[in-house]
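Title: Comparing notes on inverse folding

I've been comparing how different people in this forum approach sequence design from structure. To keep things fair, I'm posting one structure and asking everyone to reply with a full sequence. Here's the target:
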């Protein structure tokens, strides 16, 4: 089981790194159209072979405000369809042919590719080795389970579970749910179900009940991820639960007709109807009967999710209203409370997608940092000591906020597994470390200006109206530089024009600082009585100019 799960994870990691930015580009194509959302969820899950990972990623993006609930519901529906690919992969390759015979040679091919200097080949090597381990693990699981024809007493209790009519269906539904909760992988539970059906432990009907249970159990992962997120994130996870629970309810209501429909579908493939296969520990199934049972379980999984999606996709607004009633908005907090909003739910299991969350959090950090410009304005313009103290406290508070956000983003980036990201993403991660460092320094500058102004006030000095006007010109230039920097951060690809605009703005700030300094020095020479006030004034100007340096460093980091 460990080998199967490790192979699944390794294969998923290889696929993620090989796909890299293309997969992230697919996410940006999401629109409010539920049908496109379904196709997006289907495509991503087919690539990364994990509906749980896709759902957790979707919850993260809802948590970040990048996706609406309606969009998220469509993506989750598509993820449920995409996860059925794994069952077909196992059914077609894991039982029909002994693919474990090719596992070791495939590992040799993977090892040779891993020695390549080209990133793409190394990522493909992970995919091949993961694929080999997955089916080797499946083969070992098949070989390790007891043969009921030789030792029927070993699993007599499971045989007894099948004799309670519809009660047996409910027992195996709960069994499938609990097993998925424990393994945290519906793909692993599906593999176990296929083995149990193939080895004759349980009939097709009980395997179908386990599949329905797996669809409920798989929702727990997203609910865990969303538990620390925003109300909308928890609603997205709840929508996933409602979607699957509703599907299981209608499937149980028409359980027998539904299985007959699945059986008829299998007969169209030229195989026996799995409903008609006699189940007994003493009987050995023919190859066609084994295939019919395996394909029947996989077909049921696919048809269940397809029908459920085709029915519920027209009721997405209703699902959204339901989850909004179940999960209420939090009480409004202090408007000054500032926290992360893109990575509240923790690192994603899909590392290549997580970097997109981090990038958006960096933009959010820059927007928060920009507020300091207004706080500096308020501190400069304050006429009374109480107004100044309020503005100073805000600058101190935002310096602490900058420290905390820098730490939390860095912690998130540190949590991304080095071996699960491409070199391109690794380079982007290093760039982000530099950018958040510069943003934290901008917070320090705001706090430094508050200290300069506090020292000025302690000596009963003040700025003239002309000095305040010059500071305002500098702050306007800094605010403009902030806007250009944030636009550069938002851009998916480096824009030379953006860097040119940032450089022009930095040149303007430096020129303003130089002109103001020269003018003030001339005034000091003419009127030495204002010397101390002029020192505080020039210190403030220098600190504002230093903010411009930090800002241009960020745009230049994007070029690197």
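Reply #1:
Here's my take.
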């Amino acid at each position: 089981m460990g080998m199967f799960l490790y192979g699944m994870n390794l294969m998923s990691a290889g696929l993620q790194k090989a796909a890299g930015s293309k997969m992230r580009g697919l996410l940006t194509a999401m629109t409010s159209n539920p049908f496109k959302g379904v196709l997006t969820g289907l495509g991503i899950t087919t690539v990364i072979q994990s509906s749980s990972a896709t759902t957790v990623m979707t919850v993260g993006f809802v948590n970040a405000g990048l996706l609406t609930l309606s969009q998220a519901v469509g993506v989750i529906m598509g993820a449920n369809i995409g996860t059925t690919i794994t069952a077909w992969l196992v059914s077609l390759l894991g039982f029909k042919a002994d693919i474990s015979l090719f596992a070791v040679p495939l590992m040799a091919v993977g090892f040779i590719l891993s020695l390549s200097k080209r990133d793409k080949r190394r990522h493909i090597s992970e995919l091949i080795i993961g694929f080999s381990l997955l089916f080797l693990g499946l083969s070992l699981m098949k070989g390790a389970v007891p043969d009921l024809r030789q030792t029927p007493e070993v699993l007599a209790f499971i045989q007894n579970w099948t004799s309670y009519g519809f009660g047996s269906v409910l027992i195996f539904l709960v069994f499938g749910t609990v097993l998925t909760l424990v393994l945290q992988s519906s793909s692993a539970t599906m593999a176990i179900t296929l083995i149990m059906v193939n080895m004759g432990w349980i009939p097709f009907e009980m395997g179908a009940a386990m599949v329905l249970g797996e669809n409920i159990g798989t929702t727990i992962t997203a609910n865990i991820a969303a538990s620390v997120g925003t109300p909308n994130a928890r609603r997205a996870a709840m929508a996933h639960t409602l979607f699957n629970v509703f599907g299981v309810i209608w499937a149980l209501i028409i359980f027998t007709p539904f299985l007959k429909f699945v059986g008829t579908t299998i007969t169209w493939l030229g195989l026996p109807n799995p409903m008609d296969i006699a189940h007994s520990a003493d009987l050995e199934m023919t190859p066609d009967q084994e295939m019919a049972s395996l394909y029947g379980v996989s077909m049921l999984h696919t048809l269940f999710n397809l029908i459920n999606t085709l029915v519920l996709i027209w009721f997405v607004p209703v699902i959204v209203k339901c989850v909004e009633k179940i999960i209420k908005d939090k009480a409004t907090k202090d408007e000054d409370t500032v926290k992360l909003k893109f990575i509240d739910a923790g690192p994603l299991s899909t590392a290549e997608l997580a970097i997109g969350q981090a990038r958006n959090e960096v933009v959010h950090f820059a927007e928060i940092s920009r507020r300091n410009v207004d706080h500096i304005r308020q501190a400069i313009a304050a006429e009374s000591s109480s107004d100044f103290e309020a503005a100073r406290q805000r600058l101190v508070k935002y310096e602490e906020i900058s420290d905390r956000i820098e730490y939390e983003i860095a912690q998130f980036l540190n949590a991304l597994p080095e071996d699960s990201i491409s070199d391109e993403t690794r380079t982007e991660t290093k760039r982000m470390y530099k950018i958040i460092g510069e943003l934290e320094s901008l917070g320090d500058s705001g706090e430094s200006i508050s200290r300069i102004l506090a020292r000025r006030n302690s000596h009963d000095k003040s700025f003239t109206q002309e000095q305040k006007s010059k500071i305002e010109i500098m702050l306007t230039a800094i605010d403009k530089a902030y806007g250009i920097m944030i636009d550069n951060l938002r851009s998916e690809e480096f824009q030379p024009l953006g860097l040119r605009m940032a450089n022009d703005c930095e040149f303007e700030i430096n020129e303003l600082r130089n002109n103001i300094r020269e003018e003030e020095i001339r005034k000091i020479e003419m009127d030495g009585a204002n010397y101390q006030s002029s020192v505080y004034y020039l210190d403030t100007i220098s600190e504002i100019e230093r903010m411009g340096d930090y800002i241009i460093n960020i745009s230049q980091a994007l070029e690197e």
